[in-house]
Each structure stands twice: as C-alpha cells, then as structure tokens.
Amino acid sequence: MSPKTLYDKIWDAHVAQEAEDGTCLLYIDRHLVHEVTSPQAFEGLRMSGRKVHAPDKTIAVPDHNVPTTAGRENPDQMPEDSRIQVAALDTNAREFGVHYYPVTDIRQGIVHIVGPENGWTLPGMTVVCGDSHTATHGAFGSLAHGIGTSEVEHVLATQTLIQKKSKNMKVEITGKLSPGVTAKDVVLTIIGETGTGGGTGYVIEYCGEAIRNLSMEGRMTICNMAIEGGARAGLIAPDETTFEYVKGRPHAPKGAQWEAAVNWWKTLYSDDDAHWDKVVTIRGEDIAPTVTWGTSPEDALPITATVPAPEDFTGGKVEAARRSLDYMGLTPGMKLSDIEIDTVFIGSCTNGRIEDLRAAAEIVKGKKIKDGMRAMVVPGSGLVRAQAEEEGLADIFKDAGFEWRLAGCSMCLAMNPDQLSEGERCASTSNRNFEGRQGFKGRTHLVSPAMAAAAAVTGKLTDVREL
Amino acid sequence: MEKFETFTGIAAPMPLVNIDTDMIIPKQFLKTIKRSGLGVHAFDEMRFDREGNEVPDFVLNKPAYRESSILVAGDNFGCGSSREHAPWALADFGIKVVVSTSFADIFFNNCFKNGMLPIVLPQEQVDLLMSDAEKGENARMTVDLEAQEITTSEGEVIKFDVDPFRKHCLLNGLDDIGLTLEKADAIKSYEERVAQERPWV
Ligand code: SF4
Predict the structure, then answer these.
(1) Residues of A in contact with B34 (CB under 8 A)
(2) What CA–CA distance (Å, rounded) separates B29 from B38?
(3) Where are the alpha helices (DSSP H) in A97-224?
(4) Which of A113, A138, A164 is the last residue of a domain?
(5) B60: distance to nearest CA of chain A, Å?
(6) What Å distances lie between residue A14 and A201, A369, B156, B190, CA to CA?
(7) How far apart are CA A192 and CA A199, in angstroms?
(8) Entry cofactor note text (chain A) (predicted)?
(9) Closest residue (by CA) to atom 4 of ligand 1?
(10) How far apart are CA A97 and CA A292, in angstroms?
(11) Which of A207, A246, A412, B99 is most solvent-facing, going by the fewest CB within 10 Å?
(12) What's the CATH number for B7-197?
C-alpha cells in the first residue's frame, strides 16, 4: 500500500462514492447545528417534504445569539431577530428529532465545545457544522470543517457532502515550549509565519514534540484557528492523550466497542514516507507569548516586540497595515507592552475550556483587576462553568472583579448583547480581530487566557512571564 | 423539490423592462429565517401603498390575475442583487414559469434551484404571449416542459429551448440534494459497511 497521511486515511474511510472527475460523496459522521446558519436549511427540508437522514448523528445547540446574563431563559432578553432565530432552532430540533441542548440545559454552550465535551467528536470521524471554526474538532484526529447553509441542508437530507480533496500540509512544532507559552501563542505564531492565506487549499496536520505535549484543550485551540491560517481543516493525530480525554464521555463507545475503536484509532497517523505538498517547521523554543497588533490574525508578534510600520511590509500589505494601525489607533515603534486595555474577554471556542480558565485564574488569584477595567469570563459551556465553580475558579474571578457569565459565544462576535463600543480596546482570547468583529469600531488584541488575565490586572498588554 | 408537471394557468402580463430583485422582494424582508412565506411580500412596493393597501392598478391585484402562475415579463427580468429571496417569493406566490426575452444570470440559475422554469423567447413570441396574457382570466396557457411547448389560449403552440440537464432535474424534481438522493444506494451500502467495521460511529 502506498504511504498515506492522516488526512488521506480519514478521507478514504469516508468516500461513499467517487465520480470519474474525483468528486466524492463524502459521508458525514457528525453534523453540528446552531441557530444562525440552519433555519433556511430546515425550512428547505420542510418544503420538499424531506426528513433528517440521520437525526442521531445531528446535534443542535444555540450559541451565537444567546445572552450570557442571568434570566436569559426569558426570550424578552433578546432582540426580535435573535429571538426568532433561537426559537426557530428550538422548533426545528424538536420537529426533526435531532439531539438538542437548549439554553436551559446545563450541557448548552458553544457548539465546538459541546461536541467534544459530550463525546460526539471522536477520532477518525468526519464532522461538519455551518460554522468555520468547526476546524476545532480536528484536535481529535477527525476531519472537521465548516459548510454553508445549502450544504447544511444537503447534509441534513443525505448525511453526505459533495467534495473534492484538498492538498496535504504539515506544520511541525519541534522541541519544547518555554514557560508562559501556550497553545494560543503557538497558533498565533504559526499564522504570523504562514499568513492568513498560507493554508488555502490545504488540510493542515499539526505535529512535532511540542504539539504532542499539549493537552486536548490546547490541541483544540490550535486546530480552532486552522481556518484563520486559510486551511479548511486542521488535524492532530490521536494518541493516548486523546483516548484518555474521550474515554467515559457520554457518547463515547464503551466496553468491547471501545477496544475496537481504540484499535482503529491507533492506525490513524501519517505514514513516515507520506507525501506532503507543503511543510512548515517552527522551533518550539522560539515561540514567545504572542499578541496581535492589527486587524488580521496574521498580525501577530511576540509581546516583547514593537508596533510595526507600514513600510516594514511589502505589496498590498503596506496599505493594509496602514489601515489596521489607523483602525487600531496605534503608532509604529511603540512597545506592544505599553498598549493600554480597557476590556478583557476570556472565552470563545478558542479558549473557553476548563484548562483556559485554570490558566487565567492562576494569574488573577489574589489580585484585583485594574480600576475601570471591564473584564468578563464566559465559560464555553454550562459544564465548563459548573466545573470551574466546583474548582473555586469562579470565586477567584469574581473576587478579582471579573463578571462571571453563562455559556455562549458572547463577545467573540457582535451578534448578542456583549459588544465593544466604539474605540474600546479589548484583550481577547477569541480568534478574530477583524474590524468590527467584537462591536462597531471596537479594537481587538488576540491573546492567550493567561495573557488576557495579566492584561486585566495591569491594564496593559503584559508579558505574563514578568508577572 | 416538487416535480415540474405540465399545467394550465393564468399568465400575468408585466411588460416593464429590468424588473430587479429589489422590486421582486424589497430588502426589509431579508431578515427572515424562512424561504417560504415571502409570497405575500412579492413585488411589495408595487403591490401595496405606504399604508399597506393594495394598489388596484397593479396587475397581480386585479381580480383576473390574482391566481397567476405564469409571468410574461419585459427584458432583463431579475437583475440586481443576487438574493435567492426573489425566486423564493415568486415561487411562494405560486409562480411556476417566467417568460421574457432575457434574464439576469443569477436569478435565472436560482429559478431552477427552486423548481421554477424561466423561458427565454424571441421578442415577437414574447409579444404574442403578452397580448394573449392581457386577455385576462380567460387566457389560460399550457406549459409542457417535456415537449418544450407553450400553448396559448388560442391554441397556438410556441416551442422553447431548455438545457437538457436542467430539464431532467425539473421534470424529476431533482435539486443538488435530489441528485445525491439518486445515489441513495451507495450511501446505504456505505452505512451498512461502516456499521460492521466501525459500529461505534
Ligand atoms: S465562539 Fe466565536 S468563533 Fe466560536 S463559534 Fe462562537 S462566534 Fe464562532
């Protein structure tokens, strides 16, 4: 047999039919659904009298629109159009009989946190969702990517997608990470290096010692942002860390099936002599705590650096950098660690898991957030929230002056009540620093949870290693 | 998608040229979470005044044309924004066929995705159908996609062209999903195989 990459192996295991031109009918093992991109898809089914092909493989949860404040079961807390979208998901999920976690369910949360947490996401699966950050699930060695509304309908109706294969790209992080350096810093550094278009047309496999040593939470942070590097999907080969995380979760296999599953999962790695269309290698030791200064995730630099000047770039990036600096209100040459912050957001599908909250709590423990600072922690799911309360993390945050919220996408995107106002500057653990992403004219600096916590305490972007 | 079957219906004359998708469905109706239910807003700004009263002169408000299933329209129908809400609104109103000398590209494609048949004809044949449509309720036309023919109320037969693949899809009620469902056997046998090999999925 010719050597294969991990991607090749998962792909091959899911081709239900292949046409002569290489177009494949790819079978989908898990379909995650949220309220924003699904209403017309369900409506399409209804109009054509179709059913959901595999309701048992379909999981629905509202996350983008829902408020994260107490009393949100009361729909009056939402503006009209949000309320309608959430209500539509409720009706559709019940009518079509798919798995469903409404806001009143403790398991509700951000779709990409809910899937892995409940054992829906397993190694070697194909996972899709009408959301680009579906890449997150690649951390389990599952092929996971975002789809559009018409494709959502296609998957609902047929449990397949019409697909052509991408190319293989390997991103290797060698050696060890230094203290204070987290998965978020790794992925920001990768995107800073490859650019937001570097992964276009590829599925990326992240590998190397530094990746192997990451927890599942950290691996999810890495794969979550594969899309920000242009790739449709990111992958990390499953190993003991993966199996350990999956074992015992409600929808994970049990008993003899567990043994059989692990046996197959152990075959899911890239063969030594597999062919790569592109390879990027970064030394783990070279990665520092990283922040973004501009309005693209590729505008990432070590916290020890200074704000660049447009002239530091070439081509179209010169003008883009000028525009970014203007939008962000920054002057070239100033130290990144001198940038003053007024808002801190800890949460999102990038960094809203328990480990992220632990890392942030460790920094703020016994401290207070800076006067005038607005800081919030939004757990990625009700279960993460409950665990954090049990571990005493919630009290640490509250004592320090953080708002302790209910689960949802919250300030990751300006689609619910949590938004930045014009000119506000936020250290955020989310994944996109686009213009207006967190609110009209709001300014976003992407950072790790520890760095966000440090900024909340000092009021500036801060090198967490010096705290 | 429903199969496109031969039908006889009322044709409404809309000689205006460049009817754009904003006219077909104004932007205030795009916030919907639905594809259906837009029919009541089709041509909203031409059909209703600012108080929401019907404009009696508008063709689809006239008693003879309220049940129209065919539009005979002026040149370049469906231009402007690519909103799929436009064909959604027309289909929901009950329109199955639009006849014109020309259509905007995206609208033309969107029609097929929604089970509607846009028919392109030379000017003189559109003129002929237009005057037939102007006769009102008594002017029922028959559209036969299989034979690619429109028969006027006078019994005159007009031939039209249609892409063979699209014809096949309309006649069989196939959209992308429909086409995939034609491969249901392949999907089923895949599922059966995986149920053996990886029963935990
Ligand atoms: S947390 Fe942010 S990136 Fe993740 S699904 Fe929600 S809106 Fe999208």
Answers:
(1) 39-40, 43
(2) 8
(3) 111-117, 149-158, 183-194, 209-212, 216-224
(4) A164
(5) 24
(6) 19, 50, 54, 8
(7) 12
(8) Binds 1 [4Fe-4S] cluster per subunit.
(9) A349
(10) 43
(11) A207
(12) 3.20.19.10
Q: Which domain holds residue A59?
A: 6-164
A261 vs B191: CB contact, 8 Å cut-off? no
Q: Which tokens go with A10?
A: 């998962």
Binding-site residues, ligand 1, Cβ < 6 A = A 63-64, 110, 112, 131, 133, 348-349, 409, 412-413, 430-431
Can you tell me the distance from the alpha carbon of A344 to that of A359, in angstroms, rounded to the nearest whole number? 15
Q: How far is CA A345 from CA A230, A373, A376, B20, in A?
A: 24, 11, 5, 44
Q: Which residue of A has its CA nearest to B92?
A: A47
**A89 in contact with B, Cβ within 8 Å:** no
Q: What is the pLDDT along chain A (467 residues), one digit of tens a residue?
A: 799 999 999 999 999 999 887 789 999 999 999 998 899 999 999 988 999 999 999 999 999 989 999 999 888 888 888 899 899 999 999 999 999 999 999 999 999 999 999 999 999 999 999 998 999 999 999 999 998 787 899 999 999 998 889 999 999 999 999 999 999 999 999 999 999 989 988 999 999 999 999 999 999 999 999 999 999 899 999 999 999 999 999 999 999 999 999 999 999 999 999 999 999 999 999 999 999 999 999 999 999 999 999 999 998 889 889 999 999 999 999 999 999 999 999 999 999 999 999 999 999 999 999 999 999 999 999 999 999 999 999 999 999 999 999 999 999 998 888 999 999 999 999 999 998 889 989 999 999 999 999 999 999 999 999 98
Number of continuous H segments (helices) and E segments (strands) in chain B: 8, 7
Q: Where are the beta strands (DSSP E) in chain B?
A: 7-14, 70-73, 97-100, 117-120, 140-144, 149-151, 157-159
Task: Note whether A382 and A268 are same-domain residues.
Answer: no
The domain that holds A255 is classified in CATH as: 3.40.1060.10
The answer as to whether A300 is a domain residue is no
- ipTM > 0.90, yes or no: yes
Partners of A158 on chain B (C-beta within 8 Å) are 177, 180-181, 187
From CA A85, how far away is CA A90, in angstroms rounded? 9
Beta strands in A312-457 (DSSP E): 343-346, 374-377, 403-404, 425-428, 443-446
Between β-strands A24-27 and A15-18, what pairing exists: parallel, antiparallel or unpaired? antiparallel
**CB contacts, 8 Å: B31 with chain A:** 81
Same domain assignment for residues A49 and A115: yes
